[in-house]
Amino acid sequence: MPNFSVFRVDPLHTLNQISALSRHNLREYQPSNADPNRQHLNLILIGPESDFALQAKAMLGDQKMRNGRQRKTRIAAKVILSATRQAFEVSDESRNLDARKIKAWKDESISWLKDKYGTKILSAVLHLDELTPHIHAIIIPLKDDGKLSYKTYFGERQTLRDLHTEYANILAPLGIRRGIERSPVRHEDIKKYYNMSKAVDAALPDLPPLQEAEPIKQDGRIGLIKQTPSVYLTNAEALRDEARQAGRDEAEFVLEKARAHAAQVQEEVARRWRYLQDEIQALKEAKEALIAQYSEAKSTIANLTQTMNEYKDQAMVEKAAREEAEAAHTQLKSDYDQTLAAIADPNYPKDQLVSWAESVRAAPPQALMEAANLQEPPKIHELIPKMSNAPARDNSISISPPRI
Does residue 132 sit in the same domain as residue 220? Predict the structure, then answer.
């Protein structure tokens, strides 16, 4: 089986993320997928033995960083170097790890890492307490001029592809090669993988064991199953006796038993397949229900938006009406002030003033009435309260407010 290299890069945006990765790499807590009995085998290859964030802060200095919601400065790169587990095993038949293979891979990997990034390496830790040996490295992407630039070292897809190819080439003498470039296969986040595995285990019912359970081999196609005959060979003497008692041919009798057992296996697999189909159907129905709820919520939001817009329009109309009323009130006050000024003017003809007041009283402008909040036309003496006290143009003429 071919052995493939593993090269993965992810950005880190904050010192808190670096601190969290430090706790994981230094095993300040016990991950669920790590063996505590093998934790002493882990090695710090480069960097501090405590919180990496302190040294990272010193390396970054006073770099300007974006902390916006949409775009944040990528202050470091988390790099994982490894290979498929078979590359570290003693042989294809043995699943035990070979210390010499691990050392050769570790030396080549750390040498390449130092040659490539030098003083930019914040930390490199070898983990041997998980299923597959791997190295966690943290790179601070500082250029020669001291400026931070993640894009220069890890920002482009083609750059990452070239780095993977370069790393695989230095492992080629160890029998490790690069996987297919641009392959549709994608890395599955370890937390998502374990959460998904637990969810599947919790959803599946406790299935009864198969009768005379033996390892079942599948050739890649669902339903095509081959049962190993070891269970019949180990009980060969008992089967011969049973065949003789039944007066049957031994070979034919064993074959019949094998076919019956294979039928049981196929029936059990079919039952489990039907269960999975029912679960898939239930998930589809749940998905459709969620889509319906989403559509309903979307419609409700649209209705609320329309109602809000209507309230806005109504508010604008009321505002315009208030402004018009305020303008009319201002005009009424101006006319009232002019009237008082005319009364106080000794040269203003009083007969014209009385005639004007009578016309105003007879047909007051509706806008003025509404602006003044009047239910009926005003009295003349209300419009001209000081007429009787105003000096007359001619002393022989005395004008008094008429009775209404």
Answer: no
pLDDT tens track for 57-66: 999 888 877 7
163 and 21: one domain? yes
Give long-range contacts, CB 8 A cutoff, 24+ apart: 256-262.
257/232, 258/227, 258/229, 258/232, 261/211, 261/212, 261/227, 261/231, 262/225, 262/227
Q: Provide the pLDDT confidence category of residue 168 given band limits of 50, 70 and 90.
A: very high
Q: Do 234 and 350 reside in the same domain of the chain?
A: no
| CB of 141 closer than 8 Å to CB of 149 | yes
Residue 33 · residue 194 · CB < 8 Å: yes
**Within a domain: residue 330?**
no
| Domain assignment of residue 353, given as a range | 345-389
Mean pLDDT, the chain, integer: 76
Q: Which amino acid is at 236?
A: A
Identify the residue with better confidence: 264 or 339: 264
Q: What angle separates helix 350-362 from helix 250-344, to the nearest 10 degrees?
A: 150
Q: What is the pTM of this model?
A: 0.48
pLDDT at 331: 83
